[in-house]
Design goal:
Distance between the termini: 34 Å
Largest sheet: 3 strands, parallel
Radius of gyration: 16 Å
Strand content: 15-25%
Shape: globular
Number of helices: 6
Length: 166
């Protein structure tokens, strides 16, 4: 079966499902995977968030990236349906998620077989690592790298740090 954005993604221009994303109302979210193919080790993700961050409406009221943003949720759903690739096309491919936040999209890319680098300015606080450990089988965890980058540094410095993460 060929899965498409229209079929797979719960967020689309014609609906208001994005209002159902709980942002930071709980310390963790249960995201049920909608794909009817059960290639994942379980049919849901448990995404941990940071209670230090908070959102009012859609505005971040404190510094941090510790919750599931709307764009990350949409990308998770797109990757869940293989982003129009055949399932085997993910195997061994490299994916870099800049501004990974809680790493939701990167988790699904890893479950699809990609080698994933999650990049975030706040990666050092451990939230990405916790989500990787909570959601990926042990044999896939080694396919994920977590990299903390501060893009206010000179570009050459940031690119070298990114290369070191790989």
């Amino acid at each position: 079966t060929n899965f498409s954005f229209d079929l797979c993604c719960t967020l689309a221009p014609w609906n208001d499902n994005e209002r159902l994303i709980p942002y930071l109302t709980e310390p963790w979210l249960l995201v049920v995977l909608a794909s009817p193919r059960h290639r994942f080790h379980r049919p849901w993700l448990q995404i941990y968030q940071d209670p230090q961050d908070r959102v009012e409406g859609q505005q971040l009221r404190s510094v941090g990236s510790g919750f599931l943003w709307r764009g990350g949720y949409q990308l998770l759903r797109w990757f869940e349906c293989n982003a129009d690739l055949q399932g085997g096309d993910w195997s061994g491919k490299r994916y870099i998620e800049f501004g990974a936040g809680v790493g939701a999209a990167g988790l699904v890319a890893a479950l699809n077989g990609a080698r994933v680098t999650m990049v975030d300015a706040d990666a050092g606080r451990g939230l990405l690592a916790r989500n990787v450990q909570a959601n990926l089988p042990v044999d896939l965890q080694s396919n994920v790298r977590i990299c903390q980058l501060n893009w206010s540094l000179p570009v050459a410095t940031s690119l070298q740090r990114l290369a070191d993460c790989e």
